[in-house]
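Hey,
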Amino acid sequence: MVNTYTQFYVHLVFSPKHRDALIKKEWKNDLEKYITGIVQNNGHKMLAVCCMPDHIHIFIGYNVNQLIPNLVENIKTSSNAWIKMNKLSRFKFEWQKGYGAFTYSQSQVNNVVNYILNQEEHHSKKSFREEYLEILKKNDVKYNDDYLFEFFDNVNQWE
């Protein structure tokens, strides 16, 4: 009997609508756990997740039986409803429409996991704009400035 074998690692990045810094330190761990449940219930393996006030990084062992846009939509829709149901944000919370999705090889997994888990330290030295543009360049992604996230410098990290 012949089997199909695949191995893909995908790094997802997206933000609240208008890049608002709405993710609060008091509930970021609960949001990360909730999103981990969504990812794993869809047959993917969570390798690392980190919420910052104005964006999120998710790194998964990707199950090819689900399209990435469907997974991202599921994560956004479900977590958005969860945030609203639990009244975690005193402001209207929505995820922005776009996202970044980048693939990595097995040899890069540990570096990407460490990079994601050390976001707070990383952002003490580099803005999200600098970080995201660097990811696009490293992955040789051609982009149009008009369709990038709205970037705001000096976003208050964990008020």
